[in-house]
Structures are given as structure tokens and as C-alpha cells.
Automatic annotation (TrEMBL):
PANTHER family: 23S RRNA (GUANOSINE-2'-O-)-METHYLTRANSFERASE RLMB. This is RNA methyltransferase. One of its GO terms (molecular function) is RNA binding. It comes from Amycolatopsis eburnea. The keyword Methyltransferase applies.
């Protein structure tokens, strides 16, 4: 799989950008900030406030060009010349999780979910339900940025996030590791409430408009649905994730 399976700094940190999110991260005793990067062009009271807050928290402040900050933030408009790398203690590479002596038995795989609010709410729900892994690929899914953190109510920092290059790569790795892949589809006869699950199962949640992509779809073991007696075509993907996550909680009780 080449470079896709190598460990990236993005497998260890959540990067927040903008003055307010960075100050909030520095002020939160429950979080460990690895470093703050401030643009050379950042001057005045705002930059001074960040430097004071970082010093009080014992966090190193690095200077970089404004262009470099934009590249690292992955956001060209709202970084305000500052970002912070926050340690996410439960975030790691999918390859590392699968190599564990006891790999996670139930995981979610996000495929093409591009709305930050949905990704954030899924992370919050899955963490609340005690799931052992939410696979968030680096490509094709909303970046783990302040919008995702806000939607998760801060839970994203401690969510069991598993990183890899793409959803297809994740599906291949899961299949090789002996997982059955289940995808949510409205027309499936088998429902999430009556499907027989093996010891290792991964559930694919597709994007807001296109659903599960073809590349991942061809590796799916079985399609399952959420029964909806009411006349509604589909649920929002984060609502579907909640139904699924807490059905897994019910089964485990």
C-alpha cells in the first residue's frame, strides 16, 4: 500500500486553527497541546495574547511563513495566522489498530462524508456508545478541523479515531484482517436489528448525497437497512450512525 500506510503527524494530532480555537485549546487543562505555530506576519495584541497563553501552558510557539500556516491548517481563509496541534490520545493509524493483539471488534468506516457537522456528530455518538474505532480517511472525508471539533462538542479530541489514506484502502485492510463489511442501504431486506454479526464487523457510512462509493461497495459483505415505517426516504448519516451505534450497545448488554 506504499506511503498510504505510513504514520503521519495527522495520526497523532488534531490541528485547530484561528485565534479563538487555539486560545480555547491552550486554556483547557484536559487537553495537551504539542505546539503552536504562528505566522511571521502575525503581530499586535492577538499574537501577543496567544504567546502569553502558550507560555502559561508551557507550550512551544514556532514561527513560520503565513503560507506555511495556511498549508498546515488546510484552510486558506480562516486560520488567522495561527494553529495548534492538540494531542489526540486515542487517535492512531488503522494499521496499528489492526496489528493489536486484540484489534477492535466493531468499527465504523466513513466513506465520502464531507460535512464537518456530520463527522463531528458521528465521532461524539460513536464515543458515547463505546465503539472502539471510527475510521476517518485523510481523503474524501471532511478534515478534522475546528468545525468538526465544535460539532462533536469537543469529544473529537478523545474519540477513537483511526486514520488511513482512503476508504477503499481501509476496506481492503479490514477485509484482509478478517472483518465482515456491512453498508447501510435503504433497500436492503436485512436490517441492522436482525443481521447476524461475526466477531469482527465494520460498518460503512456513505456520503450525504452519493452514499457508499463504488470502490468500497464492491468489497461489502452485506447491505443492511434501518427499518422506517414512516414515509421518509432516508435518515441523515449522523442519525443513522446513532441508530447503528446504540443497536451495538443493546446487543452488548
Amino acid at each position: 500500500m506504499g506511503d498510504e500506510s505510513t504514520v503521519s503527524p495527522k495520526d497523532r494530532f488534531l490541528t485547530v486553527y484561528g485565534r479563538k480555537p487555539v486560545l480555547e485549546a491552550l486554556a483547557d487543562d484536559a487537553l495537551r497541546v504539542d505546539k503552536v505555530i504562528l505566522a511571521d506576519t502575525a503581530r499586535g495584541p492577538g499574537a501577543a495574547e496567544i504567546q502569553r497563553a502558550a507560555k502559561a501552558a508551557g507550550v512551544v510557539v514556532q514561527r513560520a511563513s503565513a503560507h506555511r500556516v495556511k498549508v498546515l491548517a488546510g484552510n486558506g481563509k480562516q486560520d488567522q495566522g495561527v494553529l495548534a496541534d492538540v494531542v489526540a490520545p486515542r487517535m492512531r493509524a488503522l494499521s496499528a489498530a489492526l496489528a493489536d493483539r486484540r484489534p477492535p471488534s466493531r468499527v465504523l468506516l466513513l466513506d465520502g462524508i464531507t460535512t464537518p457537522a456530520n463527522v463531528g456528530m458521528i465521532l461524539r455518538t460513536a464515543t458515547a456508545a463505546g465503539l472502539e474505532g471510527v475510521i476517518v480517511p485523510r481523503r474524501g472525508v471532511a478534515a478534522l478541523d475546528p468545525l468538526v471539533v465544535k460539532a462533536s462538542a469537543g469529544v473529537a479530541f478523545r474519540a477513537p479515531v483511526l486514520r488511513c489514506g482512503s476508504a477503499r484502502e481501509a476496506a481492503e485492510m479490514l477485509t484482509e484482517a478478517g472483518y465482515a463489511l456491512y453498508a447501510l442501504g435503504a433497500s436492503a431486506r436485512t436490517t441492522v436489528f436482525d443481521v447476524d454479526l461475526p466477531q469482527r464487523a465494520a460498518f460503512v457510512l456513505g456520503g450525504e448525497t452519493a452514499g457508499v462509493g463504488e470502490e468500497v461497495g464492491e468489497l461489502v459483505t452485506e447491505w443492511v437497512s434501518i427499518p422506517m415505517p414512516g414515509e421518509v426516504e432516508s435518515l441523515n448519516v449522523s442519525a443513522a450512525a446513532a441508530v447503528l451505534s446504540f443497536e451495538l450497545v443493546r446487543r452488548a448488554r
